[in-house]
Write a structure and sequence with these properties.
Elements (H helix, E strand, L loop, with lengths): L12 E2 L1 H11 L6 E9 L3 E9 L7 E4 L4 E4 L1 H7 L3 E7 L2 E7 L3 E4 L6 E3 L1
Parallel strand pairs: 1-6, 2-5
Antiparallel strand pairs: 2-3, 4-5, 6-7, 8-9
């Protein structure tokens, strides 16, 4: 049996590719934040929501990176704590991918996920 402890202050991690991508996206928006949250969606339960916002919500958890901040919705943190965000190239497209250690099920198309 393995026992794990939930750490509500666990960080969201970015690969080097994702950090470069988000840094470029935020270069002309110095007073804005990248907001990461979840919403009920799809056949499995939840979907990630990634948006650029003028300011974080009052209860967001702020994670500081070198030249930008990610505001994580407090209500979503339990589902996404420890998630690594990557930017991958698939054919001619670049796609943001989430490597979430909390996921126990994903839909076939990759739109939604569920946690235990």
């Amino acid at each position: 049996m393995t026992v794990s402890v939930f750490d509500p202050t666990a960080n969201i991690l970015l690969t080097e590719a994702a950090e470069k991508y988000f840094s470029a996206q935020m270069a002309n928006k110095p007073d804005s934040v990248i907001r990461l949250s979840t919403k009920v969606s799809g056949c499995t339960g939840f979907a990630y929501v990634l948006e650029i916002e003028d300011q974080p919500a009052e209860d967001d958890i702020i994670i500081k990176f070198y030249d930008f901040d990610i505001a994580v919705a407090a209500k979503s943190m339990m589902m996404i704590a420890g998630t690594e965000i990557d930017l991958v190239t698939e054919g001619i497209n670049q796609v943001v991918k989430y490597n979430n250690p909390n996921v126990v099920a994903e839909c076939g198309c990759g739109e939604s996920f569920n946690v235990s």
